């Protein structure tokens, strides 16, 4: 199984992980299961609610382009994101739902 993970830089949970220098724990955990994991480290451009407002939505989608193209290019079986807001942007931009890494683990082990 190949899994693509996302970590953003725009004020949501992954940004906080970067600011706290925690690293990519979800990616590391998924790799421990033997899954092929590729990190797409690009901004989802949501930034709390900024990217969801009518005024900035189009600009936000433009800024999220690198993330969305990276996710699509990887052609993974499963998309994952630590951030629920980034997951919404990934769904909007690619049509593919990004699951939280814990959900990916739960499903992989049939729990």
Tell me the CATH architecture: 3-Layer(aba) Sandwich
Mean pLDDT over all positions:
81
What is the CATH level 1 assignment? Alpha Beta
Structural class, from helix and strand content? alpha/beta
Q: Would you tell me which CATH topology applies? A: Rossmann fold
Kindly estimate the percentage of residues that lie in beta strands according to DSSP.
Answer: 5-15%
Helical run tally: 6
Tell me the overall shape.
globular
End-to-end separation: 17 Å
Structural domain count? 1
Q: Major sheet: size, sense and barrel closure?
A: 4 strands, parallel
| Low-confidence parts | 8-13
Fraction of helical residues:
40-55%
Task: Characterise this structure.
This protein is α/β, with parallel strands linked by helices and 111 residues long. The chain has helices spanning 13-19, 25-32, 57-63, 65-74, 84-94, 101-108, and strands at 2-6, 36-40, 78-81, 98-99. It contains 6 helices and 4 strands, in the order βααβααβαβα. A 4-stranded parallel β-sheet has the order 2-1-3-4, with helices on both faces. Helix 4 crosses helix 5.
Short description:
With 111 residues, this protein is α/β, with parallel strands linked by helices. It has helices at 13-19, 25-32, 57-63, 65-74, 84-94, 101-108, and strands at 2-6, 36-40, 78-81, 98-99.
List the helices and strands and how they pair.
Layout: E1 2-6, H1 13-19, H2 25-32, E2 36-40, H3 57-63, H4 65-74, E3 78-81, H5 84-94, E4 98-99, H6 101-108
Parallel strand pairs: 1-2, 1-3, 3-4
């Amino acid at each position: 199984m190949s899994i693509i993970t996302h970590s953003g830089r725009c004020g949501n949970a992954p940004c906080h992980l970067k600011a706290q220098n925690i690293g990519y724990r979800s990616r590391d955990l998924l790799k421990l299961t033997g899954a092929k994991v590729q990190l797409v480290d690009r901004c989802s451009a949501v930034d709390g609610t900024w990217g969801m407002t009518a005024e900035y939505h189009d600009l936000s989608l433009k800024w999220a382009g690198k993330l969305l193209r990276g996710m699509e290019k990887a052609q993974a079986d499963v998309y994952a994101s630590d951030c629920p807001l980034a997951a919404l942007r990934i769904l909007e931009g690619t049509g593919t739902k990004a699951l939280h890494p814990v959900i990916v683990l739960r499903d992989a082990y049939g729990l």
